[in-house]
Amino acid sequence: MNKIGWCDYTFNPVWGCYRDCPYCYARKIAKRFAVPMFKKELRNTFTSWNGTGDYLNNLKQFRPTWIESNFQKKFPRKPSRIFVNSMGDISYWQPEWMKRVLKKIKEYPQHTFLFLTKNYNVYRDYSFPRNCWLGITATDIKEYCDWTVSFKNIRFVSIEPMLNFFPNCFKKKYTDWIIIGAETGNKKNKIIPKREWIQELVRVRDFGISVFMKDSLKPIWGENLIQEFPE
Ligand code: SF4
Description:
- The protein is an alpha/beta fold.
- The protein has helices spanning about 25-45, 55-60, 70, 95-105, 140-150, 195-200, 220; strands at about 10, 15, 65, 80-85, 110-115, 130-135, 155-160, 175-180, 210-215.
- Helix 1 (about 25-45) packs antiparallel against helix 2.
- The mean pLDDT is about 90.
């Protein structure tokens, strides 16, 4: 298990996102590791650079950028949960990037590939193989309501960071799995979820929805985190 906790591996053929969420950890990682990633690309392939723009600057600025050496990564044989794109949002991918990734995924039917986005409409644009789980992230009730009204075919929901109370949202089995996490890092004025907010969400288990609490909830919930996986 890696630091993310609910997946075995991450797969990041693209870095970058045009949103500007104040809690974004990926942007900080990109800034910090842009130079080593650039050097790795130079050494390995650099086929993703088409001769225009400034590749290193794009990585640093967190503009959606294809990273061929990451795409070429080999997956293990053992069936695993692989989170696609922890370093951005797939709604900003170019269509040809997604096509290449979905083609590769089809070669690994033993694995489960988990996608997350804040814009569920991107899922309408592609045909995902059966070993893909489509998820959305929702940090507050508005984001959550938007997708439940518009899009039902969501396998899991990541509520991370949890920024507000989700009153009475889950009255039936809309999805299979809820991941809950708190904002991490040393940001001033960060929102720490209240225990009651988490308790309310945990009620989704009454409807057969699995719950996975990330380690970031330990200071609020205690050591006995609920860490379930759906069937
Ligand atoms: S959508 Fe995700 S990757 Fe994009 S800025 Fe927000 S937290 Fe970062």
